[in-house]
Every structure is written in structure tokens, then in C-alpha cells.
């Protein structure tokens, strides 16, 4: 009888432990099991309650940088379905969650993230420069826009508390940074570089960061780090405002503790760069081709591959009758390219309309490839490139040359050891 009682007690304890484990770390990964992570950034989600897609909304979107905000709710729904189906261990969202920091956008997005987390996927978020204390938080109704509430750092924490900070191993006392432990092999350092000043790590947070890296080293754990802004200047012409102001200090610390991979966004470009640490910038989920990253960690290395959200497939599955949604890949690509095709720069050129059209198409295609991380076959654009090099306009030509110099690499996949 005593032995049966002991066996029963052991079974009960095991069941309780399993239940606690599922609550605290979702899938309760063993260190011998591979870890799957999905990462996305720059969602720029706008609550449907804040727009009627009227005149002022379209004026704003058409003067923007190619974000397909008119369909951002559908993009997020399609993305959420793909995440739930893929069932990763972790979903990382590295900032610019809201279009312009609107409280209603944050609250509605949190509801979508709750559905993902309820499926068993741990969601981790940090703020971007568009998320907190934004003076440009507005609604777009008819011919007018109206200022609406943004969120403070404390309100951001309250709305998204269940998505990382609640499950954190450690939280920084001076920011919304935290450390999440995936298993005994891997932890994720989520760095807030925006809540209390944009585009830098607070000096008083560096001690906490080093403390986390020291602890991970002592426990023989890999550390995956995440920031909104970039460690590196992925394009020297686009570095100001994109690269962290104190990136050098952070990079030195990461190399000291052998951090191998940092994930970021902000620049909306699919790219990677390396100096000891490899940094991958995932392109904006709101911009064609609407990519996110899939990362497999096997205990030694990280394998990263970009994947585009299948919005058209989602639309067909949900019996949509909007032709733009049903042909979304071509629609959103064309929408993005039109941002450069319609530049006022072409109007000032003293060349024929045919030559202007050649310049516009050449630049639009190369720029779209560049932001998507897709290599460009320069032979295909030989005539247009030659014509561009005859034009005046220092910045545009320098920018085109910078893209061409970086056009041979496919930045949609990499293995980091």
C-alpha cells in the first residue's frame, strides 16, 4: 500500500509540474530540442476604428513610404493565421507595432496577439520609435484628421505586459528591456531603445545588460538579442536615425560576451551585416513583399529564412471579393514601386518622356529588390543604369550606386554560427 501511495504521489507531482511548466514556458522546451522562432517588425498597425479610408486617409498614405496601411488589418490577420499554423516556440515583434502610437491601435493589436499566445506561442514585444508618446497619433475620418491618445511607457507596459515582461527572467529597472529564457540553451534579450528617449540604449541600462550576459555565459547559454534600431549602418546613406547612437558601446559588449545574432528592423530593409555579431534587419511587415523571418536554433547555430505573408491565399480562404486582396502580391508591389515612379525628380529632368519612364522603372525595380533583400541582375537594367549615370542629382545617383554595389547577395537567408 505504501508503494502504491508513493507511485500515486509521484504521478500527481509530475502532472502538477507539467501543468506549471506549460503555463510558465508554454511548450516547456528541453535544451536538446530545436527551437523555432518567428520574427517580424514594423507592423505599423492602425485600428480599423480610426479610419474610414476617406480623403485625408488616402492623402496620408499616398504621401507615405509605401506601407500598405489600407490593408494592414488583413495583413495582420493573414500573418496571425500563419504564425498559429507554424506553431513556433516564440514570436518576436521588434517595435513600431502601431502606425503612429495610437492607444486604440495598440489595444486592438494586443487582442490579435492574445489569440496567437492562446495557441501556445510565446509572444515577445518591444516598442519602436512609432509606439510611445507620439504627437502624430490621429484618426482619419472623411476630409479631416483628429488627434487621439497615444500611450506612455507605463501604458505600453500595461497593454503588452502579457507578451514578454510577465514571463521575463529579468526586467531592467530603467526601461522596458527584459530577458526571456526559452530553455537552458537559449535566452532572448529584448532591448527597449525608445520608451525613454529614441534611438539609444540608456547609459544606466548597460550594467543590467552586462549582468544578463554574464549570467548567460556562466550558465553556458546562447543569447539572441533584439533591438528596434540597428547596430550597423546597413547603408551609409541611410544610417542617420537608423543606427543606434551608442551602437559601438553595445557592439563591444556583445562581442565581449560572444553574442552571435541581433535582430532589428526600423530601416524597413531585408539585410544583414557582420562584425563579430551578425545583425539581421527584417523588412517591414507593412511593406511589400510583407516578409517575416523564420529562425531555427539547434543549440549551436541559428538558421534564418525570410518568408512573405500569403495575403492572397488568406483572402481566398476567407471568401474575400476585393480584387486587390485576391491579387495582393502584385498590388502591394506596384503600390510600393509607385512611391519612386511618381517622384517629382523626373519632372525636372530635361529628357524625353520615354527616357523618364526608363529611369523610373529601373530605379523602382532595383529599389524594390533592395528593400526585399533580393539580388538584382544588373544586365537586365543595363540601359537604364547607363542613363541614370548621365543624370545630375547627387543623392539619388549615389543611392542607386550603393544599391548596385550591394546587389549580388540574397539577404533573405543566412546561417549564423
Which tags fit this structure?
alpha/beta; 6-stranded mixed sheet
SSE pattern, N- to C-terminal? HEHHEHEEEHEEEHEHEEEEEHHHHHHE
> What proportion strand?
15-25%
Question: What kind of sheet is the major sheet?
Answer: 7 strands, mixed
Shape descriptor: globular
* Parts with pLDDT < 50 across at least 5 consecutive residues: 1-28
Radius of gyration, Cα only, in angstroms?
23 Å
| Spatial order of strands in the largest sheet | 6-7-8-9-10-12-11
Structural class: alpha/beta
- Beta strand count: 15
Mean pLDDT: 92
Q: What is the number of helices?
A: 13
Give the termini separation: 54 Å
Question: Which range best describes the helical content: under 10%, 10-25%, 25-40%, 40-55%, 55-70% or over 70%?
Answer: 25-40%
- For this structure, the quaternary state is single chain
Verbal overview:
By secondary structure, the protein is α/β, with parallel strands linked by helices. The chain contains 13 helices and 15 strands. It has helices spanning 2-25, 55-62, 72-86, 103-118, 153-159, 206-218, 247-256, 311-317, 323-326, 328-341, 353-372, 382-388, 394-405; strands at residues 35-40, 90-94, 122-126, 138-141, 144-147, 170-171, 178-181, 186-190, 222-226, 261-264, 271-275, 277-281, 291-297, 302-308, 413-416. The strands form 3 sheets. The protein has a 7-stranded mixed sheet. Strand 13 and strand 14 (302-308) form a beta hairpin. Helix 3 (72-86) packs parallel to helix 4 and helix 10 crosses helix 11 (353-372). The N and C termini lie far apart (54 Å).
Amino acid at each position: 500500500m505504501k508503494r502504491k501511495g508513493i507511485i500515486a504521489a509521484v504521478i500527481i507531482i509530475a502532472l502538477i509540474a507539467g501543468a506549471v511548466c506549460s503555463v510558465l514556458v508554454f511548450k516547456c522546451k528541453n535544451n536538446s530540442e530545436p527551437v523555432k522562432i518567428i520574427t517580424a517588425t514594423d507592423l505599423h498597425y492602425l485600428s480599423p476604428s480610426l479610419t474610414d479610408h476617406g480623403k485625408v486617409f488616402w492623402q496620408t498614405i499616398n504621401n507615405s513610404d509605401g506601407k500598405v496601411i489600407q490593408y494592414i488589418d488583413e495583413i495582420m490577420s493573414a500573418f496571425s493565421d500563419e504564425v498559429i499554423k507554424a506553431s513556433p516556440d516564440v514570436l518576436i515583434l521588434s517595435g513600431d507595432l502601431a502606425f503612429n502610437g495610437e492607444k486604440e491601435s495598440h489595444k486592438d493589436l494586443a487582442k490579435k496577439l492574445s489569440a496567437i499566445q492562446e495557441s501556445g506561442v510565446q509572444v515577445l514585444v518591444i516598442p519602436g520609435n512609432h509606439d510611445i508618446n507620439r504627437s502624430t497619433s490621429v484618426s482619419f475620418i472623411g476630409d479631416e484628421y483628429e488627434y487621439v491618445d497615444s500611450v506612455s511607457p507605463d501604458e505600453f507596459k500595461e497593454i503588452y505586459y502579457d507578451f514578454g515582461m510577465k514571463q521575463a527572467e529579468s526586467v531592467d529597472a530603467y526601461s522596458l528591456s527584459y530577458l526571456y529564457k526559452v530553455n537552458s540553451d537559449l535566452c532572448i534579450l529584448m532591448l527597449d531603445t525608445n520608451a525613454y528617449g529614441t534611438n539609444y540604449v540608456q547609459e544606466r541600462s548597460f550594467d543590467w545588460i552586462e549582468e544578463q550576459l554574464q549570467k548567460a555565459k556562466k550558465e553556458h547559454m546562447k543569447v539572441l538579442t533584439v533591438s528596434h534600431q540597428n547596430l550597423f549602418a546597413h547603408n551609409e546613406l541611410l544610417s542617420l536615425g537608423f543606427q543606434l547612437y551608442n551602437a559601438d558601446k553595445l557592439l563591444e559588449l556583445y562581442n565581449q560576451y560572444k553574442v552571435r545574432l541581433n535582430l532589428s528592423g526600423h530601416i524597413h530593409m531585408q539585410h544583414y551585416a557582420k562584425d563579430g555579431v551578425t545583425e539581421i534587419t527584417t523588412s517591414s511587415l507593412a511593406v511589400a513583399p510583407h516578409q517575416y523571418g523564420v529562425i531555427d536554433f539547434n543549440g549551436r547555430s541559428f538558421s534564418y529564412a525570410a518568408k512573405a505573408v500569403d495575403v492572397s491565399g488568406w483572402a481566398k480562404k476567407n471568401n474575400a471579393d476585393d480584387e486587390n486582396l485576391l491579387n495582393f502580391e502584385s498590388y502591394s508591389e506596384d503600390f510600393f514601386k509607385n512611391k519612386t515612379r511618381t517622384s517629382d525628380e523626373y519632372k525636372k529632368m530635361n529628357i524625353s518622356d520615354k527616357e523618364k519612364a526608363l529611369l523610373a522603372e529601373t530605379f523602382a525595380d532595383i529599389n524594390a529588390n533592395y528593400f526585399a533583400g533580393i539580388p538584382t541582375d544588373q544586365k537586365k537594367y543595363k540601359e537604364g543604369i547607363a542613363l541614370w549615370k548621365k543624370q545630375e542629382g547627387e543623392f539619388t545617383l549615389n543611392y542607386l550606386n550603393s544599391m548596385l554595389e550591394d546587389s549580388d547577395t540574397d539577404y533573405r537567408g543566412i546561417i549564423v554560427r
